[in-house]
Specification:
With about 525 residues, the protein is an alpha/beta fold. The protein is about 50% helix and about 15% strand. Keywords: ATP-binding, Kinase, Lyase, Membrane, Nucleotide-binding, Phosphoprotein, Transferase, Transmembrane, Transmembrane helix, Two-component regulatory system.
Amino acid sequence: MTAGNDFQHQAIAAHVAQRLAGPARAILGFQELLVEQARDLGLIHIKSDLDRIGAAARQLNGFIDRLLEGTACALEEGEAEAEARLRHDLRTPLNAIIGYSEMILEEASDAPEHALKEDLHVILSAAAELLRQVDAIASLSRGETVEMLQPGECAEIDAAGLERLLFKAQEVAWPEQGGRILVVDDVASNRDLLSRRLRREGHRVVTAESGLSALAKLAEDEFDLILLDILMPDMNGIEMLSRLKSEERWQHVPVIMISGLSDVTAVARCIEAGADDYLTKPFNPILLRARINSTLEKKRWLDREHRYLQQIKTEKLRADSLIRAILPDQIVARLQDGEEIIADRFEEVSILFADIVGFSPIAARLTASDLVRRLDGMFRRFDLLTEQHRVEKIKTIGDAYMAACGIPEPAPDHADRIVALGKSMLRSLQDMEAGPDRFRVRIGIHTGPVVAGLIGRLRFVYDVWGETVNIASRLESQGVADVIQISEATRRALRGPWTLERRCALELRGIGAVETYLVR
């Protein structure tokens, strides 16, 4: 930068400071008057807020003094960062001045002729004037010709002020349901102002003085909303926002940025990084309330949607679990893929039937509840055994149990697995209640081709059909209690070293002679 340009920028900086000095001195002077009036009127409860206004006014005047001396933020750098820091430093005490003044006015709303109100309005007017002057600083870093606003001038529509006028005498019904809000700001007065205003609105508030502190609080607790400052020493707001949106546990928490930076660029960066909204300091309390309530309501709807989706997911898992208890996994997968008609022919499948010997007399002697309890206990054992031996249970028919191996996926060892299942079923009955009513079963197994498919719409059933099924049923009905009877076809399909005893050739109607063996 040339010496001429350097001198020009220093002159502009001095001109800016001079325009800021008048309203800043007025704020400090009227604050001192208010302290005296409050003391004379015995209004002790507002003294702490007046002291905060005074501290902020002194901070503001000190900064302007340093700007006049040329030791403040270096406007001549020509960088957006320098301009942003200057406006942030000026807006921070202004935020406290406006916020605490408005809170005192709100608390004094029941006394319309209150002596303090006139001076408080003077302070708010001076602060509004300062904000207009601060906004004009934006042109300095871009080297534009700057015409500082004269007192009372307004270069553009003040949307916040217009909204304040529109809602000044109107009572607005806001949602009563508060939220849990985390306020993150490195300036104590900002945190205090926001916290007090939010608590008055019924919200629960937790504060953090830095980004790292906020992350620690987020790790310990859950929040419905985060109000986040941009310019902070250890981790700026955009860095923290990026961190929040990259963590799955925090992604769903809405974030409203509250900053002294009003540039479109700053707003755009925050929205791109995942912010839900953006408010500039000093904030309009009506606008702040509306934005917070709107964001919280949106969060509640998203939370409801998330809960509904979780319920749908849970119900779907439950439905899948139920249907998988009825149908083989492969058939369920084909149904979910949209297959409407499921029917297959298998050339070699082993079918097992097991039936209780003398069931009718036993059923006549037992009570209904005892009979059902014992049948349930037996069939539960059989179901577990089919899973262990990787055999498909087909169905129960009264006191009979039907299973198949080699469907819905072909298996080279289907005969061995289903014979092993039959042996396990017989052993499991030995542990059941002894006595004349003890369950004893006959088991018949045959191997051959079948057709398997899904039938029904209200109640799905995966079933098998064919002569192989009929022969297996006949082998069971003409079998021996507590013994497995298999056919010649099953014997030929066996691969393991089973002990077999040839029994006889059974003459089956419509089929002819079938050689049979007992598995010992």
